[in-house]
Each structure stands twice: as structure tokens, then as C-alpha cells.
Task: inverse folding
């Protein structure tokens, strides 16, 4: 890049490429078992160590772009830049599709834990700090060296970014641990996500009608996931449909982790998150595959 790899535009470009590839991978995954894609690509079914299916290869490339952008955001602005949350959400989806749900959960939990007390995120109309995230496809911050909360059209963007990360983490948790402990933890995460969305709706923080309808739809989806997890049933009878996870793809690729899988939704006191440790964990699997 002419501007340099660490320039904000370059980081946003990597996020955009990750978004595009994530959408492509999701479309391809719908046809991985179809005749058209089976005729178009030859899969090596004998080698279990390789990525099985064309969509997984695309997910891997998308994950590399998200990881590169995430490294840049963290290095440039720290853990509290709104694009960090949304980029982590997209990267976690890629890891989930690559059967690396545990890594996805760890990254999401670390990022969420680094945001501090979740109750402080339940902003009101009197809040003095408004956040903007590229989860809403907003323009980049003009000040590249120092990020400050900026007034935006959507005062709830930051809250919704956190809610999206918690939603993803809840779904991945029940996928990775389909037992009673996993169910309880997933319920706690989903309920917190639902509360954040509900707060944004009821406090009239969302003035844009289209965005408000979107958040209401997302809130209804989270509530539906909560309902599905409420019955106390055995793991082998759990009706949680993996194919429906993020079926709407609303959070996929839209730059929208609790260290060691700590349950942040119920903890009010926590140790400070070491940015250097988290940043080091992001630097695995480098360099990424470029397209």
C-alpha cells in the first residue's frame, strides 16, 4: 500500500476484504454439498489435515485479513477502539467456521473483558460520550494517531458492538460445550446481549428508523436463542441447530474474549487486561494469505 500497512485506510481495506470473503464463503458453504460446486471443485477427502470444502479455504483467507486488521487497530488505538470489537466479531465467525471455536471464544472473551464494567455500557440519552463503529458502515476516524469518542448518528453503535460480540460468544459457547455448564454460560451471555440491545431500544438511542428496525430484529433473534436454551435437556437431545447460527449473517463481516474463559456477565470485579498479552495472541498464524 502507498499509505503503509498500518494506515487506517489500509486497515479498513483489510476489513472490507474480510467482509467480502466472509459473504462469499457463506454463499459457497450453502452449495458445498450441491452438485454445482462438487463438479466445479475436486475435494481431497482422504486428507483430513487439509481444509475440507471450498468455503473453509475462503474462511481461512478472510480470517487472515481480519487478523491483520485487528493487529493494526490494537497496535494503533489499543483495545477500546470500536473497530476492534467489530473486527473481532468477524474474525471469530471465521474461526468458528474453521472448527476453532475455542480460539474464537477466547478472543471474544478477552476483548469483552477489556471493555470494563458492562453496566457502564448501558448508556442513556444524557451520555456525554457517543461511539461510532464500522459495524454500521460509518466513515473512518480522521485522527489516525489518537482516537477519541466522537458524536455519531447512532449513539448506540458501541453498545451494539459489544452486544454482538456477546451474542456470538454465547452461541459459540453452546456449540463448543453442549452440556449444562455450557448452557448456563451461554444463557448468561445471551441475556446480557439482549439487555444491552433492549436498553438501546427503550432509551430511544437509535433515531434512524431503519437501524432501529434492524436492532429490534436482532433483539428478537437473541430472545429466540434464549428461549431455545431455557429447557433443561441433555446434551444429546439439545435442539440447538448449528446450521442456524448467524444464519442472517447480520454480524458476519460487519466490523463489529474474558481471559481464560471467565464469566464476565456475572462478575463485577476483574483483574486488568494486559493489552500486550492479548496483542501477542492476535499475532499467531502470521503471515496471512493474501488475495
Result:
Amino acid at each position: 500500500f502507498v499509505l503503509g500497512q498500518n494506515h487506517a485506510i489500509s486497515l479498513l481495506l483489510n476489513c472490507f476484504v474480510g467482509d467480502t470473503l466472509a459473504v462469499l464463503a457463506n454463499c459457497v458453504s450453502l452449495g458445498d454439498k450441491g452438485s454445482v460446486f462438487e463438479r466445479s471443485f475436486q475435494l481431497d477427502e482422504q486428507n483430513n489435515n487439509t481444509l475440507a470444502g471450498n468455503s473453509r479455504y475462503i474462511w481461512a483467507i478472510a480470517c487472515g485479513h481480519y487478523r491483520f486488521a485487528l493487529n493494526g487497530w490494537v497496535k494503533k488505538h489499543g483495545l477500546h477502539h470500536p473497530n476492534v470489537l467489530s473486527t473481532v466479531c468477524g474474525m471469530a465467525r471465521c474461526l468458528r467456521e474453521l472448527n476453532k471455536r475455542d480460539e474464537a471464544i477466547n478472543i471474544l472473551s478477552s476483548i469483552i473483558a477489556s471493555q470494563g464494567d458492562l453496566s457502564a455500557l448501558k448508556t442513556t440519552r444524557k451520555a456525554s460520550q457517543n461511539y461510532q463503529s464500522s459495524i454500521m458502515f460509518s466513515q473512518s476516524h480522521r485522527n489516525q494517531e489518537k482516537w477519541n469518542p466522537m458524536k455519531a448518528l447512532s449513539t448506540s453503535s458501541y453498545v451494539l458492538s459489544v452486544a454482538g460480540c456477546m451474542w456470538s460468544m454465547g452461541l459459540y459457547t453452546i456449540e463448543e460445550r453442549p452440556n449444562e455448564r455450557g448452557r448456563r454460560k451461554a444463557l448468561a451471555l445471551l441475556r446480557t446481549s439482549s439487555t444491552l440491545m433492549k436498553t438501546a431500544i427503550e432509551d430511544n438511542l437509535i433515531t434512524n428508523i431503519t437501524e432501529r428496525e434492524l436492532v429490534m430484529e436482532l433483539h428478537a433473534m437473541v430472545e429466540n436463542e434464549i428461549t431455545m436454551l431455557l429447557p433443561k435437556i441433555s446434551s444429546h437431545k439439545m435442539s440447538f441447530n448449528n446450521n442456524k447460527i448467524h444464519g442472517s449473517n447480520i454480524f458476519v463481516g460487519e466490523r463489529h474474549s474474558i481471559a481464560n474463559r471467565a464469566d464476565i456477565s456475572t462478575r463485577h470485579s476483574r483483574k486488568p487486561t494486559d493489552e500486550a498479552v492479548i496483542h501477542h495472541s492476535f499475532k499467531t498464524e502470521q503471515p496471512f494469505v493474501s488475495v
In short: The chain has one domain: 8-282. Confidence is low (pLDDT under 50) at residues 35-51, 123-155, 242-273, 283-291. Residues 54-77 form the longest helix (24 residues).
